[in-house]
Write a structure and sequence with these properties.
Length: about 290
């Protein structure tokens, strides 16, 4: 177990060495497990569910309780690192490193008792995902990674699949909360790719989707409209598991713009090419 003293002595303004990465990966793993334990205490017995103002965008007392525990631990262990959390926003002194925390990824699932949710804690270095952990408590699985160690589920190393054929792939995606308002809503992409692969799943928790790509259960994931706390840990997991992570609109991956394509290496270009073929259609077709 990493001590608070060791983490406080990391030179955050310099390149992180292997030892520092390992220490911080342990912090991320512990933080995500602390949050996930709080979630399970609330699972099936929520006392409050509130809307953030957009259709389907919810916050529960479980989100808030889990975030409080995770942030307290991160501040204790790594007080020099800033934090960006879904429910409480930014805190700490901005720097090259920043924790991105989603205390409950899959809030709508959780609120309905659907057991596909997680606590995600990712660390970004100069805007790029470096390492992190995604705890999926209903499965008793904790996914974690660092560049010098690779990716793991619990104590077992994991790797992305070797799938390179779109027709042989199992994909996953999601739909942003603003899908009711924008033509760029992922509806057309979902339909297009459903006819070109073995299937497209919609899990409803981006961090879990990315963890499943990292372990090879799924071959590729694309989505838009995501936040840094949705992406930081999961993108690092895929990259450290030997996968390819980019922006499917031919730009460099950026946790801020919210668009991601994460796949096995051989599937990245075929999936990007198919996505480029799609013409969006309006949500008004569905009376939205």
């Amino acid at each position: 177990m990493t001590s608070a003293l060791d983490c406080r002595q990391v030179a955050f303004d310099a390149a992180l060495d292997a030892s520092s990465q390992q220490q911080l990966a342990e912090v991320a793993k512990t933080a995500s497990n602390l949050g996930a334990a709080v979630l399970m205490q609330h699972y099936g017995r929520l006392s409050s569910i509130e809307s953030k103002g957009r259709v389907g965008d919810l916050v529960t007392n479980a989100d808030l309780a889990a975030e409080k525990v995770v942030l307290a631990y991160l501040r204790e262990q790594t007080p020099a690192i800033a934090i960006l959390a879904e429910e409480t926003g930014s805190s700490g002194t901005p720097g090259a490193l920043c924790w991105c925390v989603d205390p409950l990824d899959g809030t709508t699932n959780f609120a309905h008792g659907y057991p596909f949710f997680a606590t995600s804690v990712g660390l970004i270095w100069k805007g790029q995902p470096l390492l992190g952990s995604v705890a999926v408590p209903f499965l008793n699985e904790t996914y974690w990674c660092s560049p010098n160690q690779g990716s793991f589920v619990n104590d077992n190393p994991i790797h992305v699949s070797d799938c390179s054929s779109l027709q042989d792939s199992l994909l996953v995606t999601g739909f942003a909360y603003d899908r009711h308002e924008l033509i760029d809503n992922n509806y057309a992409e979902f339909c297009w790719l459903t006819h070109r692969c073995r299937g497209v799943r919609r899990g409803g928790a981006a961090a879990v989707d990315l963890a499943f790509v990292a372990t090879g259960r799924l071959d590729g994931y694309w989505e838009r409209g995501l936040a840094p706390w949705d992406l930081a840990a999961g993108a690092a997991l895929v990259a450290c598991a030997g996968g390819s992570v980019g922006d499917y609109k031919n730009s460099a991956f950026d946790v801020v713009n919210g668009r991601i394509l994460a796949t096995s290496p051989g599937l990245h270009l075929p999936l990007k090419q198919e996505l480029a073929c799609v013409t969006a259609f309006s949500p008004k077709l569905y009376g939205a």
